[in-house]
Design brief:
This protein is of the alpha+beta class and 303 residues long. The chain has helices spanning 9-36, 61-76, 81-95, 122-125, 128-139, 150-158, 170-180, 210-223, 247-260, 262-265, and strands spanning 38-39, 42-43, 47-52, 55-59, 188-191, 228-229, 237-241, 267-272, 275-278, 287-288, 297-302. The longest helix has 28 residues, at 9-36. The protein starts with 8 loop residues before the first helix and ends with a strand.
Length: 303
């Protein structure tokens, strides 16, 4: 007897429905992993997240590193967090926090500064530390800049054709500035890929490995802080000592600068104030340190 073809359709529909559910479930897992940036401790999408002032915001590691430089220069100059907010918001609008090599006319760098307009040479304005100092040099000359709306303060420095656009970035810039200035401890964490290349390198004549030396150079240039090698680290870790007023805040400012620079400098761990951030478990954020350093001490480890 010949079967009617329609008799198998309920089974086919059921099989299709099951496959569809599995597919959608898989897509959901992939989407969630992409959104959070990791599956367990495995990075899916490198990113840095700052959570402060009852909100969160995210940047990729390069952007976060550049925002960290802007805030570090502000902290080094003893400028208020508002100055860091203005600087970060301005760079968000001008370059999306990338150190770009081209723009409108001869505009280049984080702030799209123009050598032809007296900002410095092309090489200088593409140095994030120089460019940030140049921006703040003009900002601090504006009377009452701390109390001005961000559009007005930024525009008085930048003379942009689109001055209102700076305000769009103020909420995110305030979160980053609060984190990098140390006012929001344990606020910033990064999920990163594994360090590039091998870190098994003998220390040089100065007692530091090449990566530790690069860290020391960057820290001195951007934060103004010197360091010494951590005993027993074979020159791969540095200890920074923060003294004076606001030790806790300034220690966190340095520590969170380091986390944001971890991708660029191949850093693996940062320890401060009883907390630690580890690159291999970046999705966990800041956790309790097994052997916390003394108050005012920040330990940064390289690969």
């Amino acid at each position: 007897m010949t079967r009617r073809p329609g008799r198998r359709r309920p089974f086919a529909r059921a099989a299709f429905a099951i496959c569809l559910v599995i597919l959608l479930g898989g897509l959901g897992v992939v989407g969630w992993a992409w959104w959070t940036g990791s599956i367990g401790g495995l990075p899916v999408r490198p990113h840095c997240t700052a959570t402060a002032l009852n909100a969160s915001t995210e940047l990729d590691p390069e952007q976060a590193g550049n925002a960290a430089v802007i805030a570090a220069v502000a902290v080094r100059r003893n400028l208020p967090a508002r100055a860091a907010t203005i600087g970060i918001a301005t760079a968000m609008q001008e370059s999306k926090l990338y150190n770009v090599s081209g723009g409108d006319l001869d505009s280049i760098g984080l702030f799209q500064q123009r050598p032809s307009q007296g900002w410095g040479t092309a090489a200088q304005v593409q140095d994030p530390v120089y460019a940030t100092n140049a921006f703040f040099n003009r900002l601090v000359k504006i009377e009452g800049y701390q109390d001005l709306p961000i559009t007005e303060a930024a525009q008085k420095v930048q003379l942009s054709a689109f001055p209102a656009a700076y305000a769009d970035h103020e909420p995110q810039a305030r979160i980053w500035a609060s984190s990098f200035s140390g006012y929001s401890p344990a606020a910033l964490s990064c999920v990163l890929d594994a360090p590039k290349g091998s870190g098994d390198v003998a220390p040089g004549a100065d007692g530091l490995t090449p990566r530790a030396r690069a860290l020391a150079t960057a820290a001195q240039a951007e934060t103004g802080r010197g360091a010494r090698a951590v005993a027993g680290s074979k020159g791969s870790a540095l200890q920074f000592t923060v003294a004076g007023k606001e030790v806790d805040r300034l220690s966190w400012a340095l520590a969170q600068w380091a986390v944001a620079k971890a991708d660029d400098l191949d850093l693996t761990a940062v320890e401060v104030a009883g907390k630690q951030w580890r690159r291999d478990s970046g999705a966990d954020g800041w956790t309790a340190s097994d052997h916390p350093p003394p108050a005012g001490t920040v330990i940064i480890r390289t690969a």
